[in-house]
Amino acid sequence: MAFEEVSSTFSDSEPDRKGSFTGRYAVSVAGHDAGRLYVIVGEEGFSGMQPQSFLLCDGRTHRFSAPKRKKRRHVRLLGGRDEAIAALLAQGSPVDDSVLIHSLRCFKGSGGETDF
After folding, report:
1. Cβ atoms 73, 31 nearer than 8 A
2. Tell me: the pLDDT tens digits for 89-99?
3. Residue 88 three-state SS
4. Are 79 and 5 in contact (CB under 8 A)?
5. Cβ density class 61-82: b for 16+ within 10 Å, e for less
6. What pTM, to 2 d.p., does this model score?
């Protein structure tokens, strides 16, 4: 099953509730980590209901205990979401780094990688 790219920019048609991006897959498009695949584990700095930045983890370089903060314009969302991770985050539970690594590995292996 292939995952399509959702959007390279954000618009008002994006989800309109806090926490709605958690568990989604994203690729960094700017900075020294451009092209790196992450899972969104948090949102910060809301302007209305839209987050201004995301907290990103990959389980290796950026662990759950110290996520990478990136502005939303420097992130490209990919189609796909890990519902298990999203459920843990919605409960306020920490996510083990090995779960993040496994999720990203499965996403890449399922054809989820696009041009990043």
Report:
1. no
2. 999 999 999 99
3. helix
4. yes
5. ebbbeebbebebeebbbbebbb
6. 0.78
